[in-house]
Specification:
Low-confidence stretches: 1-51, 499-503
Number of domains: 2
Largest sheet: 8 strands, mixed
Structural class: alpha/beta
Number of helices: 14
Distance between the termini: 20 Å
CATH topology of the largest domain: Alkaline Phosphatase, subunit A
Mean pLDDT: 86
Shape: globular
CATH class of the largest domain: Alpha Beta
Number of strands: 20
Radius of gyration: 23 Å
Strand order of the largest sheet: 9-8-10-3-11-15-7-16
CATH architecture of the largest domain: 3-Layer(aba) Sandwich
Helix content: 25-40%
Amino acid sequence: MATLYDRKMGKRRFVSRRDFLFEAGTGISGLALIDLLGQDGLLAQEPSRPASACAGREGFPGSPNLPKPPHFKPRAKSVISLFMSGGVSHVDTFDYKPALEKFHGTPLEGKGEIRVRQGFPGPLMKSPYRFKQYGQCGAWVSELFPHVAKIVDDLAFIHSCQGRSNDHVLAHYEWNTGSILMGFPSVGSWVTYGLGSENQNLPGFVVIYDARGGPFSGPANWSAGFLPAAYQGTVFRTAGDPILDLSPPPNYVTPEQERARLDQLNRMNQDHAEKHPGSTELAARIASYEMAYRMQMCAPEAVDISRESEETKRLYGLDHSATAPFGKQCLLARRLVERGVRFIQLYSGSLLNQNVDTWDAHASIVDNHGLHAPEVDKPIAGLITDLKRRGLLDETLVMWHSEFGRMPISQRGLGRDHNPGAMTIFMAGAGIKGGQKIGATDEVGYKAEDQIVPCHDLHATILHLLGLDHKRVTYFFNGRYMRLTDVHGELIPQIVGKAKSAV
């Protein structure tokens, strides 16, 4: 059972857990909260609040993001997902293939039918980048990532991820929701549905996309799908107001006036709710107003990096124009982790100009990856280094990935086509043993062949690190209990290590 506070009657009423979650979340998304509040003229002038005032563990009646107990002792409290939109070439970054040099210019044979997205399949093409071994683990890293190369002993590389689609949009759906179809809840939505948030003054699931614009498939990547809409990701911006329409006009009303007006509106809504007890949308609207009020005060503080030290800003690359945009995304991610936000997803790659602004290297690997890798390399290394020195890495899962890899054969001699058959990702933090190499592709990097890791295995592992059994995180929809991993999902043993005892 859960409780909702009745302001008019001055007492609590008891509802079922299912009704509580439904009432709190139906039909309301993160951005809609702010829009609704603005429409009703309830946005007040932003008060000055210290960081401590926005720690926000105290919830409010009807909040869908109240902390919930895990199934067993977690190794991570938060997740930072670093998504490289467009398809990073594994054979030019972290999956070194000497055979590509040996067989450069020869046809790819013995692999069955070669499926390409755009046509123009060429011969095998060696990487234009030099690879070297780094760290005590001896991980191979291309010259595209000199800063990440310095921290490889903190990283676990999975070289055998494999997807089901060579289409950007469908592949984004798969790795973000577990399905190649639109309409399914994202990983971040499942996580906040299962665990809630450690901070009741900020959204539990935050998305910060490329300063140039959003990624392939847009908001479907952070949709709540058939879950209550309160679990949808909320987009924060790296410049200006963190949330559009968050800041009110100057000298509008005082915080005290806003609080009084909001309480009066809640009393009126509660009166109306008593007359229409079956209206779950009204309960959601009441909860959304409260969250919007709290975000109005605390979101600006969370994204204010002005008090960060100059050394910290340099660590993330904020002192250079090429690295500053993604560096700010990474720095904001660390600040949100510090404030208890459960799931933060960062995107590199924008559809402003697909062939230039994403990692979609059809025309030229050198021109494309030579642009984007330097944008993210130093910020990623800075983020992991900063989390580690602040004692946050052990309780934070950091994951770097893309929607698929790219072909070992050339496209028009310079580029590479989409390849869902092979992809490299890396993970850090959450007690994961660093310096690992998990799985492998064939000799030229065409397909994963050793310990293949589909999206469901990755998602099951993420939930496990957060203390959730992926088979027990379910939601009844369309006649059956749905879950992130559907009827699949196996834990990656090298990542999870020894099973944890129940709480």
